[in-house]
Specification:
2 domains; 31% helix; elongated; 7-stranded mixed beta sheet; 11 helices; 15 strands; Rossmann fold; alpha/beta; 8-stranded mixed beta sheet; single chain; 390 residues; VC0802-like
Length: 390
């Protein structure tokens, strides 16, 4: 297809293969895994679909020029030469983000500033006026990436980070990032074929992402806007067709998603966010202390949660993680239980041997996603050997 072009989707550490799989399933071409990113090819409609549907992407960038730079003047000259009137009107606004991995260039803010100078100087010289900078809601977001001496200028088709789904208006002290939540559910292997419980739901993000996965609802259907919608070449009719096609692929879900939290304030926030996501018919929220709870059926259950790490929410880590293990052993047989934590000492207090450990990052915190397989009427859980970490 002659109208295909290269794009780069950014993601979190450990989610690269998940994102690559998502892109292939959507129909992306030449999908190539990098570190915290995946490159691929597609046309304009696929760029719209990627932003709308990808669960583990943070940004979708469209590279428009790559060149070598020795110093800041090289950067200025190359950016100045670009045909910026193809992408921006003089009355529009812009914002520039820079990431730098280079011995020659060490200050990303200065790189962004120099790029901005080149663009506005070009407009001033050719049209006698210049576009303004708007960091909050610009018409065009531009990404500058310098790796050693190679510079890539990209248009940011997403706008705000894609983790800002649009449904979460109420949060707790330590809310989980929506992209991280979706990735955890996907890594846990849950496919909507059994009941799911988040026993420490906070603002309900894990349950919402799980419900959207089960029903095949586009991840970002609740967003108010994407970056590409203010581009000069935005094709609204094409976007509407893409959106309609994706919505037609939503499927029914015939199991239960349950949220527990013992804090009334968390329950209210979770209910608000679930309602905002139009998922109230799929998710039940209950004020319940997980440590005093047990399964209410013999059916297989999938548990996934984000317990306190002892960072922003103070807990007695040894006691708290010991209670997690006790609750699983005493009340949750025939269950696959997954949770993420950065408190690696706390894991030792669970008293169970994980069958899986996956290294991830929650923000800047190095963490582990762990799996415990709770069998009915046996002690297999205690005999399992943990798998190697990813």
């Amino acid at each position: 297809m002659g109208d295909n072009f290269k794009m780069v989707a950014k993601t979190l550490f450990g989610f690269e293969e998940l994102l690559a799989s998502e892109l292939r399933n959507l129909g992306g071409a030449h999908v190539t895994v990098g570190v915290r990113n995946v490159s691929f090819e597609g046309d304009t409609g696929f760029m719209y679909k990627a932003n709308l549907c990808l669960r583990t992407a943070i940004k979708v960038l469209k590279p428009i020029k790559t060149f070598r730079v020795r110093n800041e003047q090289d950067l200025y000259d190359e950016v100045y030469k670009m045909p910026w009137n193809k992408y921006l009107n003089v009355t529009d606004t812009l914002a520039i983000n820079a990431t730098v991995f280079s011995e020659q260039f060490t200050h990303s803010q200065f790189i962004a500033y120099k790029t901005k100078d080149a663009i506005v100087d070009k407009f001033r010289d050719t049209e006698g006026s210049r576009p303004d900078v708007d960091l909050d809601n610009p018409h065009l977001r531009i990404n500058v990436h310098i790796q050693r001496n190679e510079c890539t200028i990209s248009l940011d088709s997403s706008g705000e980070s894609l983790h800002k789904r649009g449904y979460r208006t109420a949060t707790n002290i330590a809310p989980i990032n929506e992209v991280l939540a979706a990735g955890l559910v996907m890594l846990s292997g849950w496919d909507g074929q059994c009941d799911l419980l988040d026993p420490m739901c906070g603002s309900g993000t894990l349950a919402i992402e799980a419900a959207m996965i089960a029903c095949n609802i586009p991840a970002n259907i609740n967003r108010k806007q994407f970056g590409f919608e203010s581009w000069l070449d935005f094709d609204e009719e094409l976007y509407n067709k893409i959106e309609e096609s994706c919505l037609n692929k939503i499927r029914e879900f015939h199991h239960n998603i349950i949220c527990y939290d013992k804090a009334p304030s968390a329950i209210r926030k979770a209910e608000d966010n679930i309602e905002n996501a139009n998922l109230s018919e799929y998710i039940t929220v209950e004020q319940e202390d997980f440590f005093k709870s047990s399964k209410n059926s013999d059916r297989k259950l999938h548990i996934i949660f984000n317990p306190p790490y002892g960072e922003r929410l103070p807990v007695d880590v040894k006691e708290f993680y010991g209670q997690i293990g006790d609750a699983l052993k005493q009340g949750y047989t025939n269950t696959n239980a997954w949770f993420i934590t950065s408190n690696l000492e706390g894991l030792k207090s669970v008293g169970l041997r994980p069958s899986r450990k996956i290294k991830l990052f929650n923000g800047k915190l190095e963490s582990r996603l762990v799996k415990y397989e709770m069998y009915a009427g046996s002690k297999k859980t205690h005999k399992q050997k943990p798998l190697e970490e990813n």
